[in-house]
From TrEMBL:
Protein name (database record): Protein translocase subunit SecE
InterPro entries, per database record: SecE_bac, SecE_sf, Translocase_SecE/Sec61-g
Superkingdom per UniProt: Bacteria
Family of this protein: Belongs to the SecE/SEC61-gamma family.
Amino acid sequence: MKIVKFFKNVSREMKKVSWPKGRELTSYTITVLTTVAFVAVFFAVVDLGITQILNLFF
């Protein structure tokens, strides 16, 4: 019976959530994808730099 109460509480809380509208969702999605791409490129450049430095010594 605890599981039923849990899911009732989850359902009640989900109704309180403020879901983003279409434009907000698009804006948030673009922001997330841009951030992920930037971080991926940043770490790729750092990785290449470290690789080049290590290749000089070994």
